[in-house]
Amino acid sequence: MKLASLVVEGERRAGAVDVSRGTVTLVPAHVGTVDDIVRGGPAALDAARAAVAHGGPETVALPHVRLESPLHRFNRDILCTGWNYWDHFEESKGRREGQDPQERPRHPTFFTKGPDTVIGPADDIAYDPDLSARWDYEAEIALVIGRDGRSIPEEKALDHVFGYLVANDVSQRDLQRAHGGQWLKGKSIDATMPLGPWLTTADEVGDLTALRVRCEVNGQVLQDATSGQMAFPVPRIIAELSRGMTLRAGDVVLTGTPSGIGSAREPQVFLADGDVVVTRVSGLGELRNEVRRTRLT
Questions:
Q1: How far apart are CA 224 and CA 74, in angstroms?
Q2: pLDDT category, 97, cuts 50, 70, 90?
């Protein structure tokens, strides 16, 4: 099931997307929003499926609606994985301005970014050149936890995943460097992380090593990789992140970006007002966002 979020007559509703038909079928309001369904577990998902299949709900053409970010209620910061494609790790060597580790990490690198970064699949990416001069793109696969767990064994990790989305971890490289080399500040600017276009339930995602991740800026492909190139696959990420730390239904986890980021290019490529950023993951959908000058300071 592909669960989208949209506003109908002033009320946020969940919708089931049929990509082949180009339609979205409204889930009855009593079933709840996408956030409600995620937190409600298998019973809530079954109720949503049954309601769409048998309830005679309203169906509208997908091009006629504006989808929001599927999720709006966050338990905490977005949980993120850094340096999780070895080609990305290697391309940035010598360019991290004091952040270079001596060797490839033996465990996933984790950081967080604020939930106010999240925007919808067609919303503008906020851009303020007075705040930062180095706005970079990072296409990523995101996952959503569907069942609470702590110290989750790697072999059971996928049992805790509700579904997957597309994300772009837009980052401000100079802010990363200016605040002690940590990543929180340079990745937590409001209204800068597109998320969506819908939440694809885990049962609809096949081989987790065969998802193609792409990012285009103004029609030029700048990132193109498969999830099989991850240094640490999804089960390992969940197992290590949850060790001694409870993951809860509704938590969003980003799984890292492949090579091709702007700050590692020669010459460097950074986002500017008017740029169109398209982020795609095969089977999960597409984000299409324009960079728009916005006063943030």
A1: 29
A2: low
Collapsed DSSP state (helix, strand, coil) of residue 277: strand
pLDDT of residue 100: 61
| The model's pTM | 0.95
Architecture (CATH level 2) of domain 78-293: Alpha-Beta Complex (3.90)
Pairing of strands 171-172, 139-145: unpaired
Task: Calculate the CA 194 to chain-centre distance.
Answer: 7
Span between the terminal Cα atoms of the chain, in Å: 40
Extract the tokens encoding 4: 């989208």
Beta-bridge mates of residue 290: 276
Compute the half-sphere exposure of residue 50: CA atoms within 13 Å on the CB side of its CA. 9
Q: What is the pLDDT of residues 194-221, one digit of tens each?
A: 999 999 999 999 999 999 999 999 999 9
* Domain residue extents for the chain: 2-64, 78-293
